[in-house]
Amino acid sequence: SDEKLKEWEMDELHHELKSPGVAAAFKYDQIKSRMRKWSLDFELDEMQEASEWADLFIWIDAGVAMDPPPGVPSICILGDLHLNPEWRLELANKYDQVYTQWERPPDASWGWLPAAVDPEVMAIAGHEGYCDHLGSYQEPRPYSQSKIWDVGFVGQTHPQYFQGRLAGLKMLGQNHLVACESLILQDMALLYARSHVGFNWSIGTDLNMRVMEVMATGTPLVTNNVPQLGELFSQQHVMVYVGLSELTRQVEMLLNEPALAGTIGRSGQAEVLKHHTYRYRAAQLLQGKLEPSK
Hints:
- The protein is of the alpha/beta class.
- 37% of the residues lie in helices and 13% in strands.
- The strands form two sheets. Strands 6-5-7-8-9 form a five-stranded parallel β-sheet, sandwiched between helices. A four-stranded parallel β-sheet has the order 1-2-3-4, covered by helices on one side.
- Helix 9 crosses helix 10.
- The model is unreliable at 37-42, 125-143 and 289-294 (pLDDT under 50).
């Protein structure tokens, strides 16, 4: 909605490390240019008649609640349970099936649908003849982009909510060239592709989209440890740190050993593009290949 977009845009003014002017304005101009009034251009009251034309209703958490239409099988995919969990949990009870994205669900009857990427966005020049695990697959090639920054990061840096993330970025910035911006789609992908190392510091135990996005570009990822990371990736795909000292050591290791960085980057990219795309997630969801939900 326009209200939610304005809320996000105002939040950008409070970030400590990003340049809030040009980058933020450019990002939200991009979002606005892609906004449509629903995919089929229908009004909300027409949702009441959805049972006449819809086989399935899927709500994906973007911060705006929506009740499922009556008489239509429904799926709720929750995102930021660490933010305002009350209304999200209340909304979930109205849906037939519920999945969480960033962490394993708090309810045993729900399923886990991990984050994913769109290869056409995150690996623009990162693959040839690509097809994911549902069909034939060819090894992706790295982005044909020259490296500009030592470390790349796209995300929130509000000092009230991201103290650990800020501490990590500031420490890395003492000795390395760090890019920290507000970007989306191909511009975000290019920032990561032009960085020697991608940095992540999750909120709590979230396995966020940044994990997948950095890896999809072929840039090696250094991330804090979250419980479910090891269920999707191994040490050949990603480097995991505990604490600021280990973060610094791992980044310096990758910068000093380009062969190692390339190996981890290519391995992580191949794993993400093979098993963690939106097309693959949709197939898992529709074919019932996820954990049982209620």
